[in-house]
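Morning!

As promised:
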Amino acid sequence: MRILLVGAGGVGTAVTRIATRRPFFDHMVVADYDLSRAEAAVAPLDARFTAARVDAADQAAVLGLLTEHRCDVLLNATDPRFVMPLFEAALTAGADYLDMAMSMSHPHPDLPYERTGVKLGDEQFARSGAWADAGRLALVGMGVEPGLSDVFARYAADELFDEIEEIGVRDGGDLTVDGYDFAPSFSIWTTIEECLNPPLIYEQERGWFTTEPFSEPEIFDFPEGIGPVECVNVEHEEVLLVPRWIDAGRVTFKYGLGEDFIAKLRTLHELGLDRIEPVTVPTEDGPARVSPRDLVAALLPDPAGLGDRMHGKTCAGTWVKGTRDGEPREVYLYHVVDNQWSMREYGSQAVVWQTAVNPVVALELLATGRWEGSGVLGPEAFEPRPFLDLLREYGSPWGMREQ
Amino acid sequence: MRILLVGAGGVGTAVTRIATRRPFFDHMVVADYDLSRAEAAVAPLDARFTAARVDAADQAAVLGLLTEHRCDVLLNATDPRFVMPLFEAALTAGADYLDMAMSMSHPHPDLPYERTGVKLGDEQFARSGAWADAGRLALVGMGVEPGLSDVFARYAADELFDEIEEIGVRDGGDLTVDGYDFAPSFSIWTTIEECLNPPLIYEQERGWFTTEPFSEPEIFDFPEGIGPVECVNVEHEEVLLVPRWIDAGRVTFKYGLGEDFIAKLRTLHELGLDRIEPVTVPTEDGPARVSPRDLVAALLPDPAGLGDRMHGKTCAGTWVKGTRDGEPREVYLYHVVDNQWSMREYGSQAVVWQTAVNPVVALELLATGRWEGSGVLGPEAFEPRPFLDLLREYGSPWGMREQ
């Protein structure tokens, strides 16, 4: 297997550090808009890795790189703006494709907090026929959430439940960063996108619908000492992926943002600082067209570089409620990463490491033929057991709590 | 009297609309960085007004304009960044100078929330000798707050009290803006500057010292139906001006920001969005160096243009506590502007109109010789009675409440 990894940020760099320990692939080209980032990622690794420069928005350039390096698969580790050009470049090149976030949504023009507009992944699923016809696979949403959370959902449906009333992904942690009032542990660009878009809910009778941001607050008790965290609905891929393959009465995603973070995001929104569309700002060199969200991101520390100052754990998981043998059952399937462990073992902070390990496991399953498929598929379209077993083999166990 | 008005924003434009009704001056040149703003201000007025383009930071250009138009006085209606170049240009030209905010402060490098660093106006007062030697007057802080609030303080000291324990400027209102979640009624640039800098307090025994932003919250009951508003300490010129001329045990300034506005300002600060120093942001035209505070200002509606959607009143005033004839006494001297009135009468919203009327009154007192002086002086250096009487003549009465 020859891999083109696009994006050498926090997650991309962690992908390389995890992959270098595994023999399943022959070559990995690490490409970034900033060549020095790609070179820095590759420098300490084995000879299978090479660095390249690429603009992820430039489909022709990505196609050129796939062809030049004879890559079988493109792994997209950029932000969601670049999903479509990378996805299309892979199809044109006859390569498989994996990402960790799906093509972007656009709210309903009149009823943004009731009805869906363009949903997450709609643009990708619309191309499923073309991928199937080409006999190629686009495995979408294959990080930790979406990704491992979807594998957990499929595992619950296959092995733990007869009937499922609700599947609710619940994400929380107790990470703190020394020396910062406010230092998100994940890309602020993506965090704003998922938290401020109208959150999506799926119900068997209503289909998909949206609500106001931060709706349905609940306190969820996270395992391994993290404890209770306030979680609210946010827009997330699992709500779109799970119902396509799994029979469940309701699907939700709640993010343990905590009160303070929610208040900050609300303020960013009320001031228009979450906007992507550029505004004109006077600068010393004359007026510039600046995306407010890009400025917010530029002001915050790079989350990938905060690992040394971070303490605590992050938990991703899937809570499932239903019945087994006529009895009610409720479980939480989860994966916890302790920042101290991920920093010591991989030099990567917990949240980016947790995101990065899952696509590497998936690539290994594809490389070894244990997973196969064509078309545009989510992680729940595949057998969950091989994935969950291989994740353990990567030194990163998952757990289950009966509630 | 020939006047150069620099700045044709909300306050500058209101200055021209107020001044056009008064005969005391011969000519007013209205200059702005954006010539079209100056032209728009001047268009509906009488022949005494002309428009010009000027960069307020360009001292030589301002000097050229003062000389060309043979101006006796420069009225600065720009933001505090431009105080020093305009102040120096006026001195060089041999003109008098008025502003509504003083030269900027810089926090103490080690103990920003205890000790003062460079205080508001320090740079201007350092030049007082040069102004006195030239026989010219720089009347600084001559808007509503500072400005009218300082006149009130002097009036209280002269006519209402024998001894003054505390002088506390208190600013509040009940203005709302239809159709906006968040639309400050005054320049956000200046609001951030005064609210996020360490607030200043004066005590006779300690001198000037600073505290944490938003310190000493208190509920102050504003007159004319506005009612109680939560007020907090902010950095303001009165605290620096009043003790130079008036004997008072303590001087404070509290701003009725309200909880929600305070929370938003705190968030802007925690995210670094209040910073003036530019950061590098990627744009479609390559990296740009952008001041975060300028971006925040660019996102918000121009407060001067919100008058049509605004409702309510704004109140500026000075609360004084002390003794008279051996008896304790407490008064609040205040000036309330109803937005409906200022829009109908002048087409200017309440807050900018209230700021603008005071320097026009002061200019008239100077033109007619009722006020005179040289050096760098605050409003409390002059007889308060003529000012307070003339303000009434402008159709804008002030009030006094015994508490």
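The radius of gyration of chain B is 20 Å.

Hope this helps with the figure draft.
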